[in-house]
Sequence to fold (193 residues):
Amino acid sequence: TPTGQRVAHRRREGASWDPDLQRYGGWKWVQRRWRRVPAAFRFPDSTPDNLLEQWFIGSEILQVPPLHMLDINDVIWQIRGDKKLRDARAMVKAVVDEAKRKSIWGDGDHTATELRQIYRQCREDIGITGNVTNSWQTALKKVRRKNPSSTTGRRRGRGGAKKRSRAVDNAGRLDCNPHHRMRTRTHGERTLA
Fold:
C-alpha cells in the first residue's frame, strides 16, 4: 500500500542511510519491505573462500552488499534465510578467529586475493581437510565436528541435550511427567501408555 511504503520509507531514511550501501544500489523494495538485497538474491552455494569474499566485499554488479551488512530481516523472506545467514556468520567467524590466532588477519579492508590466502592458511587448522572444493555449508559441518564446543553458532535442537527421564524412584513410582497416561498390565505393573 502507498501508506505502508511511506512509513517504510521514513523508517529506511531514519535507519542507517549508509553511503557504502549506496554503492550496491541502496535499499530495495522486496516482499513488501525495504531490504538491502535485491529480490533475485540467493545465498552463495560456493566454496568457503568465495563466501569470505561475499561476506567482506559483496558484488556491485549484482547489487549485493557485503553479507556482513545484512541482518535477519533482509533474508527472512527466503526459505531458511535466517539459518543460512547465521551459518555463514559462523563459518566466517571460524576462519577469522583462526587467522587472528595465527596473527595473519591484518587491520583494514582485505582484497579477494588476500581473503583466499588467509582461508588457505587456516583451513587445515579449523578442520577442513580432504576435498577443499566443497560448499561452505559442508565445510562448516567439518568445522563443527572438529570443534563441537566452539562458538561457531551451533544451536541445539528442541530439548537440547536434556533427555526425559523414565527412571523409577525408590518407592517404585515412575519418575516422569505426572500428566502422562498410565495403564495397568495384566500382572499389575504400571507403565507409560
The mean pLDDT is 76.
